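# nightly structure sweep
# worker-07 picked up a monomer target from the shared queue
# config: single-sequence mode, recycle default, output format = C-alpha cells
# input follows
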Amino acid sequence: MYSYCKVALVLSRSPNNPASRVPPDAMSSPMIALNVCVSRNRMCTALEFEELSLVADVCCYIRRLPITEQDDEQFGLFKLHQDPTKSCWLRMDKTLKDCCLKNGDSLEYRTRIRPLDVITLDKLVTVIPVDDGQSVQRITQSVCSKLGLSNHEEFSITVDRSNNDDDTRCSLNGKIVNWLISEKTLREQGVPENTAVTLRKRFFISDLNLDQSDSVKLNLTYIQSRDTIVDGTLSCTKEEAISLAALQCHIQYGKYDSSNHTPGFLTLTDFIPKVYTSVRHVEALICNEHQRLLDIDKEEAKYKYIQLCYSLPTFGITFFLVQERRYTGKKMDIPRLLGVGRNNITRLDVKRKNIISIWPLSKIRRWTYCTDTFSLDFGQYSTNAYTAKTTEGEIISDFLSSYVNIVSGSYHKLSDLVTDTLHVTDDHFYEITDKEDHFYEM
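# output follows
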C-alpha cells in the first residue's frame, strides 16, 4: 500500500539543471501531471513535467528528490497496467509524450534489475541479475556472458511447462517449450519475476566447427542433441541410433568394461528412440559399438556425437505443429510439422517424420503471419504461396528473420527488415488491412 502526498514540481530549464535537457521545441510544450510511486519506501508524489521531457532526465530529477533514499542509476520508471503483459518500462531515450502518458497516470520508480533463475540443460541453476527492461535477445547475451558461452546469438531462453492433451504445440520430453520472441521483453511475454527460464541453443550455425576446448558449450550442445535423439524429435536410422547410443554409453559410463557393460544394464528408453527399443538384440549391438570406442575420451565422444547429429537431415531444425487445409471433396485440416533451419524450411509428416518438401531460404521472398495463420511467398520461384493454420506465427517469423540475419551477419539489425501490415486471404493474395498482421521481405 502506497502513501500519497501532493507536491507540484516542474522541471527547471536552468542550464545548471541536468534534468533540463529537453528538445528545443519543448520550451512551450504542455505539462503532464503524473503520480510517481517509489517502491522502496512506498511513497507516492504528484509531479508535473513537460510532455517533451526525456524519460532519462525525469529519472535523473526524481533521484534528487527527498522521497528517494539513494542515488541509484539502475532505477527506472515502470508503467503499471491491469494486464501484466501491458505493464512496461519507459525507454530512457523517449519523451513522456512518446510513451503515450496522460494526466493522472501512475508510474512506479523502481529498480530495473531482476534476479533471473537460469536453468541450463545440465540441470544447473544460476541466479543472474538482468535488466527487466531489456529484450530477450539482450538478456540472453548477458546470460551467455555470465556463463562463459561464446556465440551468444545462437542461444535463447525458453519457459517450459508440462504438456497436456489440449496443447497442440510440439513437446520435448513431455514438456512444452515456449520459445520467447527475441525483440520483446520478458514482461511483455507474460513471464513473471519468479519464473525460471531454460537456456537452450536456438540457432545451429557453427556446430560443425565446434571448438572442443569450449567445454561448457560442447556439453550443452551435446545434451540438447542427445535429448532430441532420444525423444524422437530428431529422426535417425536404426544404425545411427545404435552408434549414438554407444557414444552416450562411453560418455556416461566411460570405457567399455566387459564385466559390467553387458546386455541388461541399460535403460534403453534413455539411450535410443522408443521406436527402436523393441529391435531384437539392440542392447547387444550398442555394447558391440561401445567396445570400439576405447581410444577416445569423453570430450571427444561428445564432439563425435554432435558431428553425427549434424549430419542428419533435420538436425538444428525447430519444428512447429501446423494445420494445412486440403480440399478432397470437403475441407479438411491435415497436421504437419513445419521446421525452420539454418538453410531451409522443411515440411514433415507428423507420424512417420518423413520429409515432404524442402524450401531453401534463398527462394523465400517474403512471409506473413497473423493471429491464426502463417504464409510463405516464393516470388518468381513459384506461383503458389504456402499457408498453414497456427497460433505460433509470430515465433515462426522470429526464427526465420533471426536465421536470415545471422547468416547475413546482421543479427543485431533486425529492424533492417521491411515491416508492413498485411492480411492473407483464402486465395493467397496479400492485402493491406489492420495492425494485427505482420509482413517481412527479404
